[in-house]
Protein: Nicotine blue oxidoreductase
Amino acid sequence: MSGESATARPDRCTARRPRGLILAAGAGRRLGRGPKALLVREDGLTLVESVLLALLGGGCTDVTVITGARGAEVARVLDGRDLVSIVDNPGWSSGMGSSLRCGLQTIGPGHDVIVTPVDRPGISAEEVARLIAAHHPGAITAAGHRDPNGSLRRGHPVLFDAKWTPYAAAAAHEDVGARDLLEAHSSAVDLVDCTDLDDGTDIDEPEDLPRLKSAVRSRR
Structure:
């Protein structure tokens, strides 16, 4: 099913709700604005708040947020919110792979986990719910977004079945995250076309900052 929209197989869906994992430890050095988790969207929400609400609103049972750079500030932003656990990753500076491994090990085995980096301003509860509805046992289900040529490209969020979370944790390294695992086992990855909900872009460079506004306006 690699590259094919999983929405075509509703008969194989499962109602099991995953746990959420937000990778929010980076310092945002290329952006030069501090941690991307603390960037504020046009609606007043920080990125970490908006992603948290998307995961919970889309059907996650709870969410683990991995912090690192200015972790105390990120934790304060989420203070008082329900169904969220904050975990500081002391090795965050080695790259996103360390945070993915930290998060999956914290959550532990036996759980489906939907993972996303924090720098995804367009992620919504609708996109998360679509992935959960399309997921079936034993698979890895990823949001797909079409590029200008119409090709469906794998992006985030990614829903790892419980079968795959130990392998994702073991494969995570440097800034690669689980990319190597996803490429090596592409036949197990179902892509769900979410182009109508989100363009799949993230925020890395200063020229990407207008996406903080466009992501909100596209939902109005």
Remarks:
- The chain has one domain: 6-12+19-217.
- The domain at 6-12+19-217 is CATH 3.90.550.10 (Spore Coat Polysaccharide Biosynthesis Protein SpsA; Chain A).
